[in-house]
């Protein structure tokens, strides 16, 4: 799945991009992750509304999920790594990866729940910005995990 755009040819710039694919994916992923947490810090420091500290939980779960997803290489999931040993081998890598994806989706669903349950539906909330920031944080962290996981090649490893 990580090579779905490998066969597209555009004269001129594709060779330069293909050589720097890992660097571009890492920078884009890190930028998305940074922007997500920066938005959340902005929402926590927002002076007009009260911000419950428990609302940081989806972001923490999404951050842990990013580390879980990217701790397993694509070769380990496919069973093509040099050593098939370790904790359950290919099956353990797949279980670890699916648990990471489930945590990422759970963080995103939790952020939606907080957005609508605490900031959109109740009539007494004047400004929904903190809820939108929670959702944006988790969406950006979620997309950064996908960019880093599927945007890189494993040739530099």
UniProtKB/TrEMBL annotation:
GO CC, alphabetical: membrane
Regions that span the bilayer: 23-41, 53-72, 93-116, 128-148
Organism: Actinia tenebrosa
Phylogenetic placement of the source organism: Eukaryota, Metazoa, Cnidaria, Anthozoa, Hexacorallia
Keyword check for Nucleus: no
Gene, per the UniProt record: LOC116295663
The keyword Nucleotide-binding belongs to this UniProt entry's keyword annotation: no
Protein name: Transmembrane protein 50B-like
Subcellular location: Membrane
Annotated membrane topology: Multi-pass membrane protein
Record keywords, A-Z: Membrane, Transmembrane, Transmembrane helix
Main location: membrane
Family membership noted in the UniProt record: Belongs to the UPF0220 family.
